[in-house]
Amino acid sequence: MKIKVCGLRNYENISNILIAGADYVGFIFHKESPRYFNGSLSFDEVRSIKAKKVGVFVNECTYSILDKVAHHDLDLVQLHGNESPQQCKELKSYVKVIKTFGMDPEFNFEILKEYVGSIDYFLFDTKTEFHGGSGKSFDHKLLSGYNLETPFFISGGISSESTEALKKLKMKQLFGIDINSKFEISPGMKEASKVKQFINELK
Fold this sequence. Notes:
It is a single chain. The protein is of the alpha/beta class. Helices cover 25% and strands 23% of the residues. The chain has helices at residues 11-20, 43-48, 62-71, 85-92, 163-167, 192-202; strands at residues 2-5, 24-28, 52-57, 76-79, 96-103, 121-126, 152-154, 174-179, 184-186, 189-190. It has an eight-stranded parallel beta barrel. A two-stranded antiparallel ribbon has the order 9-10. Strand 3, helix 3 and strand 4 form a beta-alpha-beta unit. The termini are close together.
């Protein structure tokens, strides 16, 4: 089980999160997010991060995304908007792609089939009027409707109290857990000790 910690932007905090055991770190390039990453790390600092680096985007053009991939040495892009399978496929030629979908009881899993082959991972988050980071969870039983082979992350209101419920998810496609707001000291700053405890209990 991989652990992704999203919404980071401080180098010292990132270093402590990696010591805590995170496998992926996420930088949010959506300007409306309170955790917006404005490129505050130097290129040397970015290159020194010994974890997979994920850039989070919302309805941004391919050229702009790839420019940030190169400038920030990103390993993956995570798409939270209305990005088409075609755009995902274009990006996948250069970088691994995570496509996010908001979950609610009316979610139609059939729409995911259009993205198979154009992305590397799905990410299932809580459906809100915003683009993630709501701190709200969704009913993980909804995932019983997923019958594709593409691996996925889950996100949405995951906290230190979520470990027992997560352990019960026995789906072979479940690749990783994405944590964010429930582990924050302030927007963009995570409590490393809390992250470490979560990872130890989950694994």
